[in-house]
């Protein structure tokens, strides 16, 4: 073992870290269940993370004590529900450091946030305009732009990655030009774990006159995010990968941009006045929030963010980094294992293939051992194509994972090699 692995393992298995993680694990009821008679080892956090008791209780308490539709009623319940929902918006605002609360639009998740921008902001695009994405994008940050290109006549450009899974900055810069209207890129790749140098990429895109949307679905649970510091124009994320509920997410947009954009869905809450002759629209952010939202989800997302804040993102990042370093070094030493995604700046994701064993078979053997990982293309088929594989096995870490769980994973991989080797 080299120094780095010893250091990482030491950090992740230091008694104080172990005690802190053991304490945090108590907050997650699902971590106490078994799968096939084995303790659950949950390493599918990039698909969705588990929920702490405070988030589960927050949703239940809403339905038990507050349930009412918001923004409409004069009765007490409606007012209290509205206050709780709007307080969650302030929590989100502080979490990603936006200048104004109107810049936080509640949506269903990252996918819906990106579709909102493609549909609404996209109305300003003309034939010949260009949209630049990267080769490492999730399908949610590819397909809405393809649809927009079909509607508008704009052209989709793709900045390539290298064989470590890093964005090729030279190519990215070359692809930016006077026709580039919009750049959409991920902060943290869900298939590779690569962290993009977003601040620098935003500056380059702005210099070319393009607006930038950042897909923060993975990043928000692993990195402190300050949208003003990044200076991105839009930032999208989901609650459910951040220890919060499914069905709730956030679109941040700079107020001046959101203000100038047309609504994308019509209905209740997004209007000021409706007649059959014409309708005027509500102020930000409500202009983009048609219909009754996921009220309980929004409030519980606030609870999830408070929980993450209590643990502290820097501490979470340091712990996950130690786990990833340990898992990477161990995996790199295993015969027949190929790591997919070896960027210098990475977080929380170990993606790999096992020679001679199909990823789904690896996943099945791991499941027998109680280990939950994702196998497949991870909604990033172009990434799979780049590396010439149909699928990978992906283990992804969260604040409650341990070195012992990584060891269970590694043992189960060896078992898969024996069974199928
Ligand atoms: C999960 C994910 C999405 C999609 O998020 P939804 O919650 O399914 O809308 C988009 N981009 C990345 C990088 C993701 O990891």
Automatic annotation (TrEMBL):
Enzyme Commission identifier(s): 2.8.1.7
Enzyme class per UniProt: transferase
UniProt KW keywords: Pyridoxal phosphate, Transferase
Cofactor: pyridoxal 5'-phosphate
Domain of life of the native organism: Bacteria
Residue runs in coiled coils: none
Matching PANTHER family: CYSTEINE DESULFURASE (PTHR43586), CYSTEINE DESULFURASE 1, CHLOROPLASTIC (PTHR43586:SF8)
Main function: Catalyzes the removal of elemental sulfur and selenium atoms from L-cysteine, L-cystine, L-selenocysteine, and L-selenocystine to produce L-alanine.
NCBIfam families tied to this protein: sufS
Protein name: Cysteine desulfurase
Organism: Polaromonas jejuensis
């Amino acid at each position: 073992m080299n120094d780095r692995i010893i250091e990482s393992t030491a950090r992740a298995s230091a008694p104080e870290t172990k005690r802190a993680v053991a304490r945090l694990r108590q907050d997650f009821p699902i971590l106490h269940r078994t799968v096939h008679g084995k303790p659950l080892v949950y390493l599918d956090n990039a698909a969705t993370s588990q929920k702490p008791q405070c988030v589960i209780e927050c949703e239940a308490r809403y339905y038990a004590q507050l349930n009412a539709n918001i923004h409409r009623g004069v009765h007490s319940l409606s007012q209290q529900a509205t206050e709780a929902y709007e307080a969650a918006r302030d929590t989100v605002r502080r979490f990603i450091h936006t200048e104004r609360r109107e810049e936080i639009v509640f949506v269903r998740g990252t996918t819906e946030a990106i579709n909102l921008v493609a549909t609404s902001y996209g109305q300003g695009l003309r034939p010949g305009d260009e949209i630049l994405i990267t080769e490492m994008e999730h399908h949610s940050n590819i397909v809405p732009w393809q649809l927009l290109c079909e509607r508008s006549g704009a052209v989709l450009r793709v900045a390539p990655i290298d064989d470590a899974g890093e964005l090729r900055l030279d190519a990215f810069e070359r692809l930016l030009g006077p026709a580039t209207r919009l750049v959409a890129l991920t902060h943290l790749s869900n298939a590779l774990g690569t962290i993009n140098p977003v601040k620098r990429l935003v500056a380059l895109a702005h210099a070319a006159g393009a607006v930038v949307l950042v897909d923060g679905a993975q990043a928000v649970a692993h990195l402190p995010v300050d949208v003003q510091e990044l200076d991105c124009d839009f930032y999208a994320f989901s609650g459910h990968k951040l220890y919060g509920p499914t069905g709730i997410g956030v679109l941040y947009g700079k107020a001046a941009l959101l203000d100038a954009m047309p609504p994308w869905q019509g209905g209740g809450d997004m209007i000021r006045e409706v007649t059959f002759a014409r309708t005027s629209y509500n102020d930000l952010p409500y202009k983009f929030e048609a219909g009754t939202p996921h009220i309980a989800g929004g409030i519980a997302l606030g609870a999830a963010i408070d929980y993450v804040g209590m643990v502290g993102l820097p501490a979470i990042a340091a712990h996950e980094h130690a786990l990833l370093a340990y898992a990477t070094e161990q995996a790199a030493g295993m015969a027949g294992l190929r790591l997919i995604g070896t960027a210098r700046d990475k977080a929380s994701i170990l993606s790999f293939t096992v020679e001679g064993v199909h990823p789904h078979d690896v996943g099945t053997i791991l499941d027998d051992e109680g280990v939950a990982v994702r196998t497949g293309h991870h909604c990033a088929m172009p990434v799979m194509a780049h590396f010439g594989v149909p699928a990978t096995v992906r283990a992804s870490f969260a604040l409650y994972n341990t070195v012992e769980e990584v060891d269970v994973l590694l043992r189960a991989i060896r078992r898969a090699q024996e069974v199928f080797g």
